[in-house]
Specification:
The complex is a heterodimer of chains A (about 600) and B (about 475). Chain A is α+β, with helices and mostly antiparallel strands and about 600 residues long. Chain A folds into 3 domains: about 5-60 and about 75-130, Immunoglobulin-like; about 155-305, Immunoglobulins (Immunoglobulin-like, Sandwich); about 315-590, Alpha-Beta Complex (Spore Coat Polysaccharide Biosynthesis Protein SpsA, Chain A), CATH 3.90.550.10. Chain A is built from 15 helices and 33 strands. In chain A, helix 10 links the parallel strand 21 (about 360-365) and strand 22 (about 390-395). In chain A, helix 8 packs across helix 15. The longest helix of chain A is centred in the C-terminal third of the chain and has 24 residues, at about 570-590. Chain A is globular and about 80 Å long. Chain B folds into 2 domains: about 1-215 and about 410-445, Glycogen Phosphorylase B (Rossmann fold, 3-Layer(aba) Sandwich), CATH 3.40.50.2000; about 215-405, Glycogen Phosphorylase B (Rossmann fold), CATH 3.40.50.2000. Chain B has helices at about 15-30, 45-50, 80-95, 115-120, 155-160, 165-180, 190-200, 215-230, 260-265, 270-275, 290-300, 320-325, 340-345, 360, 375-390, 395-425; strands spanning about 1-5, 35-45, 55, 65, 100-105, 125, 185-190, 205-210, 245-250, 275-280, 305-310, 325-330, 350-355, 370, 440, 440-445. In chain B, the strands form 3 sheets. Chain B has an 8-stranded mixed sheet with strand order 3-4-2-1-5-6-7-8, sandwiched between helices. A 6-stranded parallel sheet of chain B has the order 11-10-9-12-13-14, with helices on both faces. A two-stranded antiparallel ribbon of chain B has the order 15-16. In chain B, helix 8 (about 215-230) runs antiparallel to helix 16 (about 395-425) and helix 9 (about 260-265) runs parallel beside helix 11 (about 290-300). Chains A and B meet through helix 9 of A and helix 3, helix 6 and strand 16 of B.
Chain lengths: ~600, ~475
């Protein structure tokens, strides 16, 4: 083989491959070769110009040739080993790397190598024994992570954890998708430390740690004459993001020598973790400060891992009720996530009575506590179920956005209707009308349409007639997703039956399955059901879609009453603020521009990731 | 005509006014030559059925069927076992083949029974007995702090039940109203109750006011007593020592106002107490070990010179026991609907002392009865004082005439029920069919497959004069 793919691995958010190329082909490949790794709709590519020469091996080929016929050139065969960086920068939404990938090297239409590989763990020893670290350093330097680059450039020395000197990890708490390491290291303010998980999934430099005064440690170090700094901030709390529960929780503490020539990797240190979301939040608040008190980028960096769910692979078990799906009939798939309160299955029972044909229900139970209640409720009234119904039992709590995305994967309709469980539909006609409007647009090849609805509270006041994004001093003058006329009597609404808006609530939102797919569904960067819908609409707008609110009576949203058990008021406030920060980082500038006019152009397809 | 009377209990197993009213109607239907078949179907505990089947018969009577349906959600009244209930209703329908089902309560059954009968082509009549659909506080329309409730709204109901949001009450209302769309005709024993349901969202043209029937035995005993003039030996218009006897009949629970009666009694000066005897006929079965029970015990200790606990009584004896009293008192602290005890007192020819609200006040005869301000022990004490000091007893002949009038009018009430059934059955062309339920929030859409369409006819049940005869 003249070209081979040896390895795929991920290092601190950047994916790499190791490729071997024999010298006979090297020139051609180096001219216009392309490395590619693909799974489903995720494709990572690297043109040869980005490849980094890792090693060059020369060897004499074993040939039965008469010595007199050998030439000098044929005596040695050169093999170049390249490190192939596969992503632009760490921190971009990382694909789920688990499972097998198709890796290939090609040149134009010609395939030079093709194989199936999995991403394997990177071993820290390679940093000490091969030049790979120094090559990766360049990648991280370009990716604006000079802190990582600096360590990788230095000579690596792997040492036992005890070599670090006086230090102690008091506790490791798992909260949200993060791991919090709470401890102390002697003379920390005078050192350049990093915390790196041993799977190389996360790299947390000391600059991102919260240093804490530890007078007890300070006194102890003084008593043993081990003090080298006047500061008593020997304590630290480090937040390790993306601490997948399935991954072995061990880490290195890396000390970069003051001259930056040597980096000592102490570990791996195995962490005994305690899962406690509330305790984790308390620790972060005391160490880093309240979310509202932090600069926006830090608010997100510190609190997002804490409040977000771990991004494990989403798995759900389906149960089917009612009649089977009709064939050859366009369907509206109503996706209803359930969390916190099974009471609202009553709204589904009512829906069964008012919907009629042309619908299917996809109920996504994202809360193990209420699954049996909902399952039994459906199972005990199977003869009353007239609408084809799929019940999904999520393996874990994935959060609102991912629960909807998972529901979408189980949906069969050409039109998707996202519906909160606390929506009460007295009249299904507006739902049919929206679906027909969406289908009509597609039939005429007009821009896609996202339809929201006028929603009322139980006292006939307005819950939603569209969203606006005013700035609010309550959230540091950021833009909020605001519902105009919220709480005012519906009778006061004097507008027409259709309102053009920039965004609508996903509490009840209708769009084509194609558009939902093209958008990749909700972005799970938002935590626990906030701002996803505004984000989805603004992304749809960028694809050329129009947003409308269809105004009619008979649709009620018993808002916020379906998630009473999410947590205390403080937590809700933190979640909203965090999502607000995320939303504004993405859309603040865009929203400050005038709203685009409808383009009238066909929405173009984008490469999307099918993910839940 | 084949008719199924469906009750939430058998009066022999659970003594409540609604069960007795349902059973009295059943007994009268059995005597009607125009009725081919009448069957009484009552919900019962499995122990009362006595074997493992969902069905059984009461004392082996083939036309009194006991049923143990699946449990019901206490908030929305939806059955927790729809499929099982549907099967049970299906078996009842296929074996009894009713033309009409007259439901006397959906509690313990599930609100879906209306749609189950309706979809099987059975005409559905429903007698409302209290405010269960409107109010989650035992259907009393009394706030949890004891204040009377004048109107329900999701937000206000949520204030009574902080763990249940306004939204959940909205869901409750919506479900109940939409399933009420399957009722062909509502019967309300009082105009007051009808008014509350109409205000809640049921079209008032779908609700007729017809008084409950009385137990034929009670009527027969009443007639006998009037004709012979003999009051049973254990009775007497006055108690021992010439005391005026005031009788309370019913359960001792927080809604019936026994505590209020005892409070009022305790307020009376001793000189009046010497002339008064309060007889309490009834039991405190369910509230013995509660704060209410302790309160009753304490009040009884304060009034032991006046109050006699008579224990429970058999329904067939009620008329005689009432006749042994000078007055019958109904001191309820909730609105009531049309208490059977009021009708029984009328049948016994006894004047009433009643709280001045709801379905009680409506049934009073100004010439003979006394009203007091509801929930006010002081007001009741004042009425008692007036009776003891000044009141001239109503002439026995007048009371006898009133008793006979009540006996006679029972036939009118039965005729009105029959007229409803007949109209419904004749309504294939001309429908006595409800308009879609109109609620405060607008119109409820019902299942398109429901066997009635958009045509709406208004039917008013012609009422016969209810004036006492004779």
């Amino acid at each position: 083989m003249v070209c081979g793919i040896d390895e795929l691995f991920s290092f601190c958010g950047v994916q790499f491959a190791v490729v071997r190329v024999s010298d006979a082909e090297a020139d051609d490949i180096l001219r216009d070769g392309l490395f590619e790794v693909v799974r489903d709709e995720v494709r990572l590519v690297s043109p040869v110009q980005r490849w980094l020469l890792l090693d060059r091996v020369e060897q004499v080929p074993l040939q039965r040739v008469h010595p007199s016929r050998r030439t000098a050139a044929s005596r040695k065969l050169r093999t170049d080993v390249y490190l192939v960086p596969l992503s632009e920068a760490p921190g971009h939404t990382a694909p789920d790397l688990r499972g097998s990938w198709q890796a290939s090297v090609s040149r134009g239409d010609q395939n030079l190598a093709r194989t199936t590989l999995s991403f394997t763990a990177f071993n820290a020893e390679r940093l000490a024994t091969t030049p790979i670290g120094k090559l990766m350093a360049g990648v991280f330097q370009n990716a604006e992570r000079p802190d990582i680059a600096m360590v990788l450039k230095a000579t690596t020395r792997i040492e036992h954890a005890e070599g670090l000197g006086p230090s102690h990890v008091d506790r490791v708490i798992a909260g949200g998708s993060a791991l919090l390491v709470d401890g102390w290291i002697a003379n920390l303010p005078g050192r350049q430390m990093h915390l790196v998980t041993s799977d190389f999934g996360s790299w947390v430099p000391q600059s991102a740690w919260a240093l804490r005064a530890r007078q007890d440690v300070h006194d102890h170090l003084a008593s043993i004459q081990a003090l080298t700094t006047r500061s008593n901030e020997h304590g630290f709390v480090a937040i390790v993001p993306n601490a997948d529960e399935a991954v072995d929780k061990s880490y290195y503490l890396v000390a970069l020598e003051p001259d930056a020539q040597t980096a000592a990797w102490f570990g791996p240190i195995h962490a005994t973790t305690t899962k406690d979301d509330a305790e984790a939040i308390l620790l972060v608040r005391s160490a880093f400060g309240d979310i509202q008190s932090l600069p926006r980028h830090l608010a997100s960096q510190i609190y997002h891992p804490l409040l977000a769910k771990p991004e494990n692979e989403a798995i759900a078990r389906p149960f089917r009720f009612g009649p089977s799906l009709p064939s050859g009939v366009p369907l509206v798939s109503i996706i209803v996530p359930f969390y916190g309160d099974g009471f609202f299955i009553n709204c589904i029972h009512h829906l069964q009575r008012v919907l009629g044909e042309g619908f299917e229900l996809v109920l996504v139970v994202d809360d193990a506590r209420i699954f049996s209640e909902i399952y039994n409720n459906l199972n005990n009234r199977s003869t009353a179920i007239t609408v084809p119904t799929v019940l999904l039992q999520n393996a874990e709590n994935y959060g609102y956005g991912r629960a909807n995305n998972l529901g979408f994967l189980a949906a069969s309709g050409d039109v998707v209707l996202l519906m909160n469980s606390d929506i009460m539909v007295l009249d299904a006609a507006p739902l049919r009308g929206a679906a027909e409007a969406i289908r009509g647009r597609k039939a005429q090849r007009l821009p896609e349409l996202v339809v929201g609805f006028s929603l009322l509270y139980e006292d006939n006041t307005i819950q939603h007639i569209g969203m606006e994004f005013p700035r609010s001093s309550q959230v540091g003058n950021m833009r909020l997703a605001d519902h105009p006329m919220k709480g005012l009597p519906y009778a006061l609404y004097s507008g027409g039956p259709v309102i053009k808006v920039r965004a609508v609530t996903a509490a009840l939102m209708c769009l084509s399955a194609d558009l939902y797919r093209d958008l990749g569904g909700f972005d799970s960067v938002y935590v626990r059901g906030d701002f996803e819908d505004a984000d989805l609409c603004l992304r749809a707008e960028q694809l050329g879609a129009d947003m409308e609110v269809h105004v009619s009576e008979g649709l009620y949203h018993l808002e916020r009453q379906s998630i009473p058990s999410m947590g205390d008021h403080d937590l809700r406030g933190m979640v909203t603020y965090l999502n607000c920060v995320t939303f504004n980082r993405r859309w603040e500038d865009h929203l400050s521009e005038p709203a685009p006019m409808a383009t009238g152009k066909r929405v173009h397809q984008i490469v999307s990731r099918k993910r839940a | 005509m084949r008719i199924l009377i469906l009750s939430h209990g058998h009066p022999e197993l659970s003594m409540g006014g609604a069960e007795r009213a349902a059973y009295s109607l059943f007994q009268r239907l059995k005597r009607d030559p125009g009725v081919e078949k009448a069957v009484f179907v009552a919900r019962a505990e499995p122990q009362a059925i006595g074997h493992s089947a969902f069905f059984g018969s009461f004392r082996g009577r083939p036309d009194e069927i006991l049923v143990s349906p699946p449990q019901v959600d206490g908030f929305t009244f939806q059955t927790l076992g729809y499929d099982v209930l549907k099967q049970l209703v299906g078996e009842l329908i296929s074996s009894i083949r009713p033309d009409v089902v007259h439901v006397h309560h959906f509690v313990f059954w599930g609100i879906e029974i209306f749609e189950m009968f309706k979809r099987a082509g059975v005409k559905v009549v429903f007698t409302i007995h209290e405010f269960a659909a409107i109010c989650a506080n035992f259907g009393q329309m009394v706030k949890v702090d004891g204040r009377l409730c004048h109107a329900a709204s999701p937000a206000e109901c949520g204030m009574c039940f902080p763990t249940m949001s306004a939204g959940k009450f909205f869901v409750r209302n919506t479900i109940l109203k939409s399933l009420f769309a399957d009722v062909d005709y509502f019967v309300s024993p009082s105009a007051f109750l009808k008014g509350r349901y109409a205000a809640w969202g049921i079209d008032d043209e779908r609700i007729g006011v017809i008084e409950n029937l009385l137990d034929p035995d009670v009527i027969a005993r009443g007639r006998l007593r009037v004709s012979t003039g003999v009051i049973p030996a254990q009775s007497g218009e006055t108690g021992g020592g010439g005391r005026v006897v005031i009788g309370y009949f019913g359960q001792i629970n927080p809604f019936k106002g026994v505590d209020l009666l005892l409070q009022a009694t305790a307020m009376l000066p001793e000189s009046l107490r010497l002339r008064l005897e309060i007889r309490i006929h009834g039991e405190n079965r369910h509230f013995k070990d509660t704060a209410f029970g302790a309160r009753i015990d304490s009040l009884l200790a304060d009034t032991e010179d006046v109050v006699r606990l008579m224990g429970s009584y058999r329904n067939e004896d009620v008329s005689d026991l009432m006749a042994a009293c000078a007055f019958v008192i109904v001191p309820s602290v909730w609105w009531e609907n049309s208490p059977v005890v009021i009708q029984e007192a009328k049948m016994a020819g006894r004047p009433l002392i009643c709280a001045n609200i709801g379905g009680m006040a409506e049934k009073m005869n100004a010439a003979t009865d006394h009203l007091f301000t509801a929930k006010s022990p002081g007001a009741l004490a004042e009425v008692l004082r007036r009776i003891l000091e000044r009141d001239t007893p109503v002439a026995p002949t007048t009371l006898n005439h009133l008793a006979l009038a009540r006996a006679d009018v029972d036939e009118d009430y039965f005729d009105e029920h029959s007229a409803v059934y007949r109209r419904l059955l004749d309504a294939n062309a001309l429908s006595l069919v409800p308009a879609p339920v109109t609620a405060a929030f607008g119109q409820v859409n019902v299942d398109d497959s429901a066997p009635y369409g958009n045509s709406v006819a208004t039917v008013t049940v012609k009422r016969k004069a209810r004036q006492p005869r004779g």
